[in-house]
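Please predict the structure of the following assembly.
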Amino acid sequence: MNAFPLIDLKDASSFPSRRVEAWKYSDLRRHLREAPAPSPSATVPLVGGGPFEALGGEAMVFVNGRAVGETQMMVSGDKMVRLRLISRAQGTGHALTARLSVRAGAKLLLLESHEGHGSAYVAHNRLELDVARGAEVTRIVLTDEPADAMSITQAQVRVEAGGLYRQTILTTGAKLQRLETQVTHRARGADVRLDGVYVLSGERQADLTSVVDHVAADGVTSQLTKGVVRDTARGVFQGKIVVERGADGTDARMGHHALILGERAEIDAKPELEIYADDVQCAHGNTVGNLDEAALFYMQQRGIAADEARALLTQAFLIEVVDRIVHEGAREVVREWLTARL
Amino acid sequence: MAAVQKTIDAVAALEKYEHGFTSDIDTEYAPRGLNADIVRFISEKKGEPEWMLEWRLAAYERWLAMEEPTWASVKYTPVDYQSLFYYAAPKEKAGLKSLDEVDPEILAIYAKLGIPLKEQEVLAGVEGAARYAVDAVFDSVSVVTTFKAELAKVGIIFMPISEALREHPELVRQYLGSVVPVSDNYFAALNSAVFSDGSFVYIPPGVRCPMELSTYFRINASQTGQFERTLIIADKGSYCSYLEGCTAPMRDENQLHAAVVELVALDDAEIKYSTVQNWYPGDAEGKGGIYNFVTKRADCRGDRSKVSWTQVETGSAVTWKYPSCILKGEESSGEFYSIAITNGHQQADTGTKMIHLGKNSRSRIIAKAVSAGKSDSTYRGLVSVHPKATGVRNFTQCDSLLIGKDCGSHTVPYIEARNGSAQLEHEATTTRLSDDQLFYAQQRGLSQEEAVALLVNGFVRDVMQKLPMEFAVEAQKLVAISLEGSVG
C-alpha cells in the first residue's frame, strides 16, 4: 500500500493530476505543466534561527533542498531537533529528503519550520521517520510560504510496538500546498496523534492529507484538524484510516471541523475509513459551517466590537488543537505563531 | 415486547433465499449479444416512435466509446456484454385486457412471491393496509399493471414505460434522460440503449396519489440482463409514494441488472421512493448472483420540492448504486435512508449524492451498513454546495456494524462546500456487535441467531421506521434472513 505516487520534480510526467483520486483537490499538473529549473544553491547567509529558535536544541538545516549539515540523524536519549526547510528561490524548484531514526525508548521533539522566501518556487520535501519500540516522537510543523509558491511535503512515519507519535501541523497555505503524512502502526500498541490547523486567506490553498495504516493490533489513532478559510481560499482535508485484517483492538478517531468565513471560500473534506477487522472502534466527525450567530450577538451585546468578537471566536475554535500539544515550550511558540496570523 | 416477538417470529420463519426458484416460462429472446441491430430489434418490439430509436442508437454509440468504471471498491468477473440476451419476454401478446389473460404460470410466480396482482387483494395479515397498485415487470416486459383505471380517474398516469412511449410520447420525450443524461455513466448509457421496460408515473398538479404505487421486478430467464427504466414526474404540489421490489432465481451465473431511475419533482411536489432489493446474492461460495449496477437520481427542480430515498439492500452479489438528489429548487430537500446488509461473498458499494444548487436547500443522510461473512460494504457519498446556494443544511450519519473477522466495512464521504453560509455535519462510526448485548440477550433465553437478529434490527431501526408499512414487515424479515449463519 503506497499512497504516495513517486513525484520527481525533474519529470513533469510524474506530477499527479486531479484524475488521481488522492490528488483530486490538489491538481499539481494543472499548476505545473513543466518541470521547474533547478534552484541555485543559496549563498545568502542564514538570518535568525527560525520560529523555534528560542527553544534551543540542535538544528538540521536545508536551503533550497541542499543540506547545510547532515541529512540523516540517529536519535537516542532525549533530544530536541529544529528541522529548518528554507527556500530562497525565484521560479525554480528543489527537493530534499531527510531521515530520522529514533531508537528504542528514546525521545525526540522535532520542530519543523518551512521558511519560504522569494517567490513562485516549487519545493518537494520528503521526511522519513522511524519510531522504534517504546520511543516517543513529537513533530510540530509551522509553514510560512509566499502566496505564489508551491510545496509538497510527504512524511512517512513507521511506529513500532508501544511507540508514541504525536504530530501537529499548522499552516497558512501557499498557491498549492500539500502536507501529506503516512503513518503505519507496524507493531502492537502504538499510539498516534495527528493534528492540524490551517488558516487561509487570499487565494491560498492548503491540503492536509493523511493515511494511517493499522497493520498491528491494539493501536490507537486520534486525529483533530481544524481550519478557517477566508476570501477565495481553499482548505482540503483528506484523512484515511485503514484497519487491516488482524488489527484487532484498534481505536481510531478522526475529527475535521472547518469555518468558512468568506462568501467564496471553499472546503473540501474526505474522511475515510477502510476496515477489515471487526473488534475495532472507529469514528469520524466532520463539520463545515460558520461562526455561531448567537455567540457573536452575545459578545457584541456585552460591548465587544463585531470584528473583535469574530477574531476571539475564531481563535477559541482553533486553539483547541494547539492545547493538545504536550510540550509546554513548543505549545507557547505555536500559540503565539497562530495568534499573530489570525 | 411486541417488537421482540415479531423478530422471533421472523427468525423462526427463516429460509435461505426463498425467491430462488426457477420457472419454466415459454420465453422469446432477442439474438444473443449487443449491436445496433439488437437496439433496433428492441425498439421495434416495443413499437417505438422514430425519435426513440435514434435516442437509443445515439446512446449505444456513446456506450461503445465509454469504459467500465473501476473506482468502486468491488471486485467481480467482468461482464461479457456480448454473451448476454438483451431482451427476453414471455411469449404472450402485449396489451392484455384483463388479468385473466395473463399466463397463469406467471401469475403463479407472483402469487408465490406474495405480490398481489388482483386488485381486490390486500396485503395478507396486515389489518387495514392500504391498497397498492403494482406494475409487474418480468424479465424485459411489464406483464400487468393494476389499478390503472382507478388512478386515471384522478389524472394519474401509471403504466409501463413502453406503453407511455406510445400513449404519452410528448411527456416521456420531455423528461426522459433529463435527470440521468445518456452519457452520465457506462451503465446508464448501456441502459439507455437497450432498456426494455419499467414504470412511468405522472402525478398531475395538486394530486395526492391515493395509493402506494409499486413495481415488482423479476428476472426469470437465464443469461439475461435486465435493464429497466423508471421515470416518475410529480407535477406542482403533488405527492406520491413508490415502492420497488426485486427478486431473481438462484443460478450459478452472474446476471446483470443495470437500471436507470429518474425522478422529477416540480414546485411543492414530494416523491417518496422505497426499495427493497433482494436479488439473488449468490451461493455460500460466492458463485452466481446478480450484478446490480444501478443509476438512480432525483431532480428537485421545483421550489420546496422534496424527494426521499429509502432503500434496504440485502441482495445482489455486487451492488453499485448511489440514489442521488439534485437540489435545484429553493428550499428543496433530499433525504436518503439506507440499510445495506452484506453476507457471504456479497459486495456493496452504495451511498448517495446530495448536490445543493438551490438556496436554503436541505438534505439528510442516514446510512446503516451491516457486514457479515466474507462480505464487503462501502458507503460512498458526496455532499456538495454550489457557490450560489446560501443557507444550505446537511446532516449525514453513517454507521457500520461488523459481524465476524473476515468482512470489511468502508466509509468514503466527500464534502465540497463552496458557500460560507452552509452548515454541514457528518459523522460515522464502525463497531462490532457488542458482546455485552449479545450475552444479555442470550442470557434471557434467545439463541445466538435470534439475539443477532434482534440487535441488528435495533441498529437499523432509524431507517426501518422510514419504510412504508407494507415494506417494513418484509424488510424486517429480510434482515434476519440475510444474516442467517453469520455467527458461530
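Chain B touches chain A through 34 residues (CB under 8 Å). The longest helix of chain B spans residues 50-65.
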